[in-house]
Design a protein that fits this description.
Layout (H helix, E strand, L loop, with lengths): L3 E3 L1 H4 L5 E8 L4 E3 L2 E3 L5 E10 L2 E15 L6 E15 L13 E3 L5 E3 L1 H10 L33 H15 L1
Parallel strand pairs: 7-8
Antiparallel strand pairs: 1-9, 2-5, 3-4, 5-6, 6-7
This protein binds zinc ion (ZN) (2 copies).
């Protein structure tokens, strides 16, 4: 999918600004080996304006996605709200913007596709270790029970094992 905007009126100085307020249904995103689905349409509230040798896109985007908790694996809704900024220029002028982090191309038909920029911003705003709750207790390493929902009776040896090793170390000193 692409979100194409015709910028010929900007480039020909007929328009000062293009304002875009719209909603889009996006396909799930692939991120870190996972499919992230959208729980609500993507809201786009941006404008495009002419700058020297290009077009500047700025504004904000927001949506709700579904993430998997990195501790208990449960899916949970996550709100994404982020600013967006991107410069578009013609292929032969890319060099002028080499100090910018990213620059995208204005297609020969005087069209810019803002979808790749939006996807990049969305991915950048996702947490690297998603948590359903900052206090999430995770899964029991023995029986796999979700410890947020039930407390199992397993003896978790993890800490004990480490203590044993410490004790051994101390004894041998
Ligand atoms: Zn969790
Ligand atoms: Zn357990």
């Amino acid at each position: 999918m692409s979100i194409n905007i015709n910028v010929s009126d900007l480039l020909s100085f007929e328009k000062e600004k293009i304002i875009l307020k719209d909603e889009y249904e996006l396909e799930p995103l692939s991120y870190a080996g996972e499919e992230i689905s959208f729980l609500s349409p993507l809201k786009v509230d941006i404008f495009l304006e002419r700058i020297r040798s290009g077009i500047l896109l700025s504004g904000k985007i927001s949506t709700n996605v579904e993430l998997s908790c990195s501790r208990c694996l449960k899916k949970f809704p996550f709100r994404v709200e982020t600013k967006i900024r991107e410069i578009f220029t013609f292929k032969e002028k890319m060099e002028l913007f080499k100090d910018e982090e990213t620059v995208k191309e204005i297609l020969p038909e005087k069209i810019v596709d803002i979808e790749p920029s939006i996807k990049e911003m969305l991915i950048l705003s996702l947490p690297t270790k998603p948590l359903c709750d900052p206090e999430c207790k995770g899964l029991c390493p023995v029986c796999g029970e979700n410890l947020n929902e039930h407390q199992c009776d397993c003896e978790t040896e993890f800490i004990d094992e480490r203590l044993k090793i410490l004790k051994k170390l101390k004894d041998s000193m």
